[in-house]
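User: Hey, my collaborator sent me this sequence without any context and asked if I could get a structure. I don't really work with proteins. Can you help?
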Amino acid sequence: MKLKGYTLWLVPTGEAFEKFNNLIQRLSKQYYAPVFRPHVTLLGEFLQTEEECIEKTKELVKGQKSFTLELGQIYYEDFFFRTLFVKAKITEELQALHDRAKQIFNMTNIPQYMAHLSLLYGTFPVELKEKIIKEIGRDQSAQWEVNKVTLIKGGEVDDWQIVGEFPFKIF
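Assistant: No problem. I've predicted the 3D structure and written it out in structure-token form, which is a compact way to encode the shape of the chain:
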């Protein structure tokens, strides 16, 4: 499966990064699925040039204060990139950052934001997803302080590249 254009990620840090990175690695190996870096997508698949994306991401982080991102329960869908995922709590700060990103990147006509951290990509039967949840536990609560946005160049999962990390800049 392929992502078009560029995407903005919020990447976990510290214990949250270790926890989800290890889990993604294990599940990907066990179920022959793509391996990817843990992240919560802030905004996805915009088609501007790389230079425009860099400039717009710099604009996005200007004046942005850090905030806590909280994850909770595991869910699943019948969609490659949301096969198995942990839902994020939509706080005022997270929604405001998403809304600002939509405005800056001129992507206002997109579905409602459903912040999540994927654990597994692919197409798997519901029974297998339920089995995995039973094994690892539905509650995957974690949190971290978000203080930067990561710009990613899309393509096939194995080809995703970090264009840059943009720390929040408070005046």
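In plain terms: The domain at 2-167 is CATH 3.90.1140.10 (Cyclic Phosphodiesterase; Chain: A,). You can pass these tokens on to your collaborator as they are.
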